[in-house]
Amino acid sequence: MPAQLLQGKPIAEAIKSEVAAEVMGLHFRPGLAVVRVGEDPASAVYVGSKVRTTEELGMYSEHIHMQPDITQAELLNIVRELNARNDIDGILVQLPLPGHINDREILEAIDPAKDVDGFHPMNVGRLSQGLESLVPCTPAGVIEILKRSNIEIAGRHAVVIGRSNIVGKPMAMLLLQENATVTICHSRTRDLPAITRQADILIAAIGRAGFVRGEHIGENAAVVDVGINNVSDKDFAAELFSEEDLPKRLAAIEKRGFTLVGDVNPKEAMERAGSFTPVPGGVGLLTVAMLMKNTVAAAVMRRGA
User: Fold this and answer.
1) Catalytic: 94?
2) Residue 273 — very low, low, confident or very high, per pLDDT cuts 50/70/90?
3) Annotated catalytic residue 50
4) Among the CATH numbers 1.10.10.60, 3.40.50.10860, 3.40.50.150, 3.30.70.2740, which is that of 28-112?
């Protein structure tokens, strides 16, 4: 029996509706500032989506677009000015930044109370201690998918493949808070399939197209695919997609030069897993919704509303 698809869209829409209702009940308008540097096409799309969604939900949005030759000092000044503004509750600096910019210094300059990406060391530390904090949006979205799909987390064995600061590590901490038993795997893990097959919940976040295959998946596991990768090779696409899905994927490669796939081989996951998040259409849709939720949470915490 093929795996149940855990679609992100209805969950994302439900969260955004909840956020909009909360905004309507506030006596002020939460504000989000998004800072973008340079002309990266993907960043432009992501920022546009964030700004548009912020306004749709009744919040104030501000898009600050800077040229790629901006200096470290100039970008720091922009962040500090946003920190000082009372009408801005959330600050997001869109990554990646140009190579001459020190990402860490910029992200650490953001007021932790306005750090809606949840990347500041103070928020990371509070998360690790189980204290109230602003949580990275993608891992928070994974928890929402699991909970709202009625997938039990407490007491289950969750395996996270990937140890990045953006997804892997906070994902593990959030799962621990939900009382899962958590294993983190990475590039140095020995006999990876033997470990991942033990997972009741398997979360792939390594940035390698179709890396997780049937041999990595235990029967009836819940598989959450966090990856977003471009595949342009038609032969590789044939290994990843079912006969039903392959024609439209090949058509996408013909039209735009690539098709999207996660870190999991979807054809093999559908044969082994109990449930599975598709790419596109899964976790990615939750990231913006959780950003909106974080912005309102930041506003309420800052203003004591």
Assistant:
1) yes
2) very high
3) yes
4) 3.40.50.10860
